[in-house]
Design goal:
This protein is α/β, with parallel strands linked by helices. The chain contains 16 helices and 15 strands. The protein binds pyridoxal-5'-phosphate.
């Protein structure tokens, strides 16, 4: 390995091309390089992906897998969606980055499309999901001080245990997962944790200093936890009654994943602010946004917030293509019908090892009994050519591209059946 990655690395990259040099690296070597030079903040499956198309990926040895991880719902369009790739290629021959010091038509059109799609008034474009949440937090606090009249430095945001909103220091500070926080403090004050899926607890936690409630409509990372029917609408009602902003984190559940454009639409629980990301990037580029009402978004004045890459023309062109594809191909309906099929398939597996199959649309959790060895089962899934990863609560998440073919879904059910039988 040391022979290949020598001091002439940059010359070879420059003269033979990045793609060719990358192709010459074996899976084993690549995993060693990541281990040696990378921070070890991930524990990936031992699969070195070399190529992907639609819902299938191939490792560098040519083995084929069905992708049920789907980059945690960021490749809802499937890998390398033709229209989005063509859009990006065209954009890359024209304009990619301006910074917000200048205007671009891509930005204007993207903001309009995003507001049309979300049925909200204004958006602040940014890059990652965590940044979208940070943006929502800043907006909510400013709203709390300037509109609601909360005394300076006292604004409070209510969040739920089991939450996952990203990895910045502020965000992990209000996580209920010790592992996310351990030795990363001190944390930002101003957050109050309550039980998820408990309307009484929410009602009781709100005070005059509460500016917002920030929740996921379904806790995906938390183990695909679906609140009781009536919860989303109940949260909306409580927030309205107490004059508190409702912020839905739809970063993973949004853009058709659960069978509606956004999970809040299952109960018409329209938010004041919403964080979106993941699938908005069409599976090829990070694109996120905080989207909301005029009353809230208008509070940002020049200098209040920003990001060098936020709203760049390439991101906006890709976001536009991603939105157009989702609307014209009815992604929400695809998720609903394919999700029903997959859940029924899992439920029909006659396995004593399954504790529960739950989900909405194509966001599905397969919870196995606590005595099942999760890493053994993961290995067997990989052996079957199926990619899925365990989340909390002994739950394997299935979030394949919404464009996945029915034959592949059939095959997913068979593979899961065999892996469960053998483990
Ligand atoms: C992935 C995710 C985030 C964080 O998004 P990043 O792009 O990884 O920063 C936040 N909230 C939810 C619900 C997510 O699934």
């Amino acid at each position: 390995m040391a022979i290949k990655i020598g001091s002439d690395l940059f010359e070879r990259l420059r003269h033979r091309g990045v793609s060719e040099v990358v192709s010459g690296i074996f899976a084993r070597e690549s995993i060693e390089l990541v281990d040696k030079y990378g921070a070890r903040n991930y524990h990936p499956l031992p699969v070195n992906v070399a190529r992907a198309e639609g819902s299938r990926v191939w490792d560098s040895d040519g083995n084929e897998f069905i992708d049920c991880i789907g980059a945690y719902s960021a490749v809802s369009h499937g890998h390398l969606n033709r229209f989005i790739v063509e859009t990006a290629e065209e954009q890359l021959r024209k304009l990619s980055l301006t910074s917000r010091a200048l205007h671009s038509s891509e930005l204007g059109l993207f903001l309009e499309a995003l507001c049309l799609y979300t049925d909200l008034d204004k958006a602040c474009p940014i890059n990652s999901g965590a940044e979208a949440i940070e943006t929502c937090i800043k907006l909510a606090r400013k709203w709390g001080y300037s509109i609601k009249g909360i005394p300076a430095e006292k604004a409070e945001i209510i969040v739920a245990s089991g939450n996952f909103h990203g990895r910045t220091t502020t965000i992990v500070g209000f996580s209920s997962e010790e592992a996310y926080k351990d030795q990363f403090g001190p944390f930002t004050p101003g957050f109050k944790l309550i039980d998820f899926d408990n309307l009484k607890a929410l009602d009781a936690a709100i005070t005059d200093q509460t500016c917002a409630v920030l929740l996921e409509p379904i806790q995906a990372e938390g183990g695909v936890i679906i609140p009781h029917s009536g919860y989303l609408a109940g949260v909306r009602e409580i927030c309205t009654r107490h004059k508190v902003l409702l912020i839905w984190d739809e970063i993973q559940t949004g853009f058709g994943r659960t069978g509606k454009r956004f999970a809040w639409q299952w109960e018409d629980a329209k938010p004041d602010l919403m964080a979106v990301g993941k699938a908005l990037g069409g599976g090829i580029y990070p694109v996120s946004a905080a989207v909301g009402s005029n009353e809230v978004l208008e509070l940002f004045k020049p200098g209040d917030h920003g990001s060098t890459f936020g709203g760049n023309p390439l991101a906006c062109a890709i976001g536009l293509a991603a939105l157009a594809e989702m609307v014209t191909e009815n992604y929400a309906d695809l998720a609903e019908s394919k999700g029903k099929y997959l859940r029924a398939g899992f439920s029909s597996l006659d396995s004593g090892k399954i504790k529960e199959v739950r989900g909405k649309g194509l966001l599905i959790g397969l919870e196995v009994n606590s005595d099942v060895d999760g890493s053994d089962l993961t290995r067997r899934f990989i052996g079957e050519g199926l990619l899925t990863k365990e989340t909390r609560h002994n739950t394997f998440r299935f979030a394949p591209p919404l464009t996945i073919e029915m034959e592949l879904l059939e095959s997913v059910v068979e593979k899961v059946g065999r892996a469960l039988r053998d483990c």
